[in-house]
Specification:
mainly alpha, transcription regulation, 2 domains, 7% strand, Arc Repressor Mutant, subunit A, 6 helices, 3 strands
């Protein structure tokens, strides 16, 4: 369907802007939230784990983690290898996650207003399949 991805991109930027506005009182941005979200849902993780998941360069994740450490939302814990940096959420990070998760859910519910559960389900199931097709074309592993 021609124009599908143009429509997606027109949705993506305003959504990220809204999320950044929602998170700004906590000195966070969506890019920092991604790290918090990953750790919350995958447990203590290495920077490589996070960078691979989001397909972002490790130095980018390192900068994000440093900022989250400054905010005392994540902390480093010993890993299997001293060279490996493993991070986990602090208690403050857990609290911020819960607070923002509720606000994001409220935003998501408002954005999905007027869209049937069936339409939402179809979209929810289709987007990962599009991602799989893209990764296959690039020869990357699919998670």
């Amino acid at each position: 369907m021609e124009g599908f991805f143009r429509q997606y991109i027109r949705l993506y930027r305003p959504l990220i802007t809204k999320l950044n506005e929602l998170m700004s009182p906590y000195e966070l941005s969506y890019s920092l939230w991604q790290v918090i979200f990953y750790i919350k849902n995958h447990g203590p993780s290495t920077l490589v784990d996070v960078s691979n998941y989001y397909e972002v360069e490790k130095p980018t994740i390192t900068r994000r983690v440093h900022r989250l450490e400054e905010l005392k939302l994540v902390e480093q814990i010993p890993g299997k290898d001293r060279r490996e940096k493993v991070i986990q959420l602090t208690l403050s990070g857990e609290d911020i996650y819960q607070t923002l998760r509720a606000k994001i859910t409220e935003l998501e519910n408002g954005i999905m207003e007027g869209i049937s559960l069936e339409e939402q389900t179809i979209c929810f199931q289709t987007l990962p399949r599009i991602q799989e097709n893209l990764l296959k074309k690039e020869g990357k592993p699919i998670e």
